[in-house]
Write a structure and sequence with these properties.
Strand order of the largest sheet: 9-8-7-6-3-2-1-10
Distance between the termini: 145 Å
Helix content: 55-70%
Family: Belongs to the glycosyl hydrolase 3 family.
Number of helices: 17
Strand content: 5-15%
Low-confidence stretches: 1-49, 54-89
Radius of gyration: 47 Å
Shape: globular
Catalytic activity: Hydrolysis of terminal non-reducing N-acetyl-D-hexosamine residues in N-acetyl-beta-D-hexosaminides
EC number: 3.2.1.52
Organism: Candidatus Eisenbergiella merdigallinarum
Pfam families: Glyco_hydro_3
Amino acid sequence: MAGRDSNREYRRKRRMRSQIISYSVMAVVLVAVIAGCAVGIRAAAGSIRERKEAREASIQAASESARAEESAEAQSAVEELLGMESTEMETGTVYTPEDALNEMVEESVAGMTLEQKVAGLFFVTPEQLTGVGQAVQAGEGTQEALAAWPVGGLVYFKQNIQSEEQLTEMLANTVSYSTFPIFLGVDEEGGSVARVADALGLENVGPMAEIGSAGDAQAAYAANQTIGSYLASYGFNVDFAPVADVLTNADNTVIGDRAFSEDPQTAADMVASAVEGLQSTGVSACLKHFPGHGDTAGDSHTGAAETERTKEEMDGAEFLPFRSGIEAGADMVMVGHISAPALTGGEKIPASLSEEIITGILRQELGYDGIIITDAMNMAAVTDYYEADVAAIMALKAGADMILMPEDFQQAYEGVLEAVQDGTISQERVDDSLKRIYRVKLKDKIS
């Protein structure tokens, strides 16, 4: 019995030892597991944290990228807007010389009374303005006359010129007495028509036919630059030159060697150079005598003059020098008194009074938008058939801007004034002409 008890005790101790070992192992394993879990948890937490940080960094990077992109887009949009605004500002607010000229023209015309506007359409002699027999000075009479009738221009002839000093003083005084800018003009073509050179004993550049026969356009430029230079030195700002007629009729004596050539293209080349040479001196050129006086046998100074040339013929000849002179920038075109039935539906009316010729051909077909002035309205081709006021009204209604030397200035002035007052001529029509006139008068004041 003692042996069985001893065995039972041994087995009990061995079970306890085994349990202790098992618990110990379990404890070790549990500790290891716990430790491993802790490490795993820490690792997982670290991994999660890293992934979170990575994700946050990615999100932040993406956000920053998006913000940068949005900022770039916004900046681009702002720059584009600013660029547009800048362009608009440049387009809308940059004050160009053309803008300045337009503003000066508008202000000049708007500041005139109707009476002053009508007077501004006339280009007369100083004798017609003042009533004196021969004008060789500008004094109180000129001042009073210009205050009453501020004409657009005065034209001088050999009888008005005595010396360089006298001429310079007379023109300077005239300018000082005029309320508005004024044209001071003369016929100075060279050759047989050289009022200033002949009166003052200056060297005459010679007839334009001689220059044209040599075919040297540069010589035409130089001759007219010479003319313009001495005219400007005395105070003139308009020269009724060059002659743009083509001498297509050998029997024509009124034009003769005043024309450059009988060849239309040669004449055209010479006229363009003449305009450039003259206007390089600040003196306005005036092409004459539209639609072309070179084919007529008659002289409009002494009576009716007519051309039988067709429109097609004139397109290929007479019109060429006028086209080239217009392209060269001629400030004025003078319309002659010749009749051209082929251009006016068979009607024998002076070109200076014809709407078909002035507005239809010169303005619309040739595209001329400068000053259109009539030839001298005291010539027999006009005075034999029309009163001074009737002729002036007809010319303005036909599209002319200025009336040169009407037979009776007072009658013509009063007639035009009344025509505007009663609506026969619209004030808008008068304003249009004055704006063309003032664009030329004021152009040199704009740099």
